[in-house]
Write a structure and sequence with these properties.
71 residues, mainly alpha, 2 helices
């Protein structure tokens, strides 16, 4: 069941990306509507990722501002 849901989600994402490209090249009006919805959904996903903060970035783990450690 989960495979079916993920497959449908993947098809929707691929279709949305195709509509963004097609609308940028002057496609029919319905592709512009789908492209707008796709871009809005992408912005929502990006905003939700930003609001949760950076939870696993591979940045400075020592806690020092200059990245040096005392070891």
């Amino acid at each position: 069941m989960i495979l079916l849901v993920l497959s449908v989600l993947l098809l929707l994402v691929a279709g949305g990306c195709a509509c963004v490209v097609w609308a940028a090249r002057g496609g029919p009006p319905w592709t512009r509507a789908v492209a707008t919805a796709t871009m809005a959904a992408g912005e929502l996903v990006r905003a939700s990722g930003r609001s949760r903060g950076n939870r696993g970035g591979g940045g400075n783990r020592s806690g020092d501002a200059d990245g040096s450690s005392d070891c």
